[in-house]
Amino acid sequence: MSRIGRSPVKVPGGVQVSIDGPTVRVKGPKGELTRAFRPEITIHEAGGQLIVERPSDEPSVRALHGLTRALLNNMVAGVTTGFSKQLQVEGVGYRAEKSGKDLMLSVGYSHPVHIPPPDGISFEVDDKSRLITVRGADKEMVGQVAADIRKVRLPEPYKGKGIRYVGEHVRHKAGKAGKVA
After folding, report:
1. pTM for the full predicted model
2. Alpha-carbon distance 3 to 5, whole Å?
3. Model pLDDT for residues 87-112, shown as the tens digit of each residue
4. Has residue 41 been placed in a domain?
5. Minimal CB count within 10 Å: which of 64, 66, 161, 173?
6. How many CB atoms lie within 10 A of CB 47?
7. Which residues, including other chains, have CB under 8 Å from residue 120's CB and lie 6 or more apart?
8. From CA 108, how far away is CA 95, in angstroms rounded?
9. Under a CB-based contact definition with an 8 Å cutoff, are residues 155 and 168 in contact?
């Protein structure tokens, strides 16, 4: 059996889980998440834990076993503590600011880039350190929104300007070598 798939997902107090066939709805203090899983995998609740079981040892079903358990764990963690990703804006004159709920990026284009948050996502901007924090209950959505923000101006390898994840290392290139006389 899968080591990840066979370990149960603990459901903390204050979190409600409803299972309707392949559809699971998790509701907690940070929000509500719903996801439909593949019908090959069975999910049931027992003693404050979610247990994921598979019917056979076929490779495709074995792969779904661990995936389903990991997705369920992310749903429970998302509605209890939430997820966040931090991005850093690097470059002279580059900045990020909030306009209402929206994010405004000035990153070297002739116009500011306007990014509205999807449902369940919020932005926080620290003007001094030029940090953007993307927060939400859905781990997949938080990662996708952060990747979309990073895509507005990818970090370039010569001067390192652009938007990058906090802790991301950007390899610098030397650029043109001058004339040797």
Report:
1. 0.88
2. 6
3. 999 999 999 999 999 999 999 999 99
4. yes
5. 173
6. 8
7. 31, 136, 137, 138, 141
8. 9
9. yes
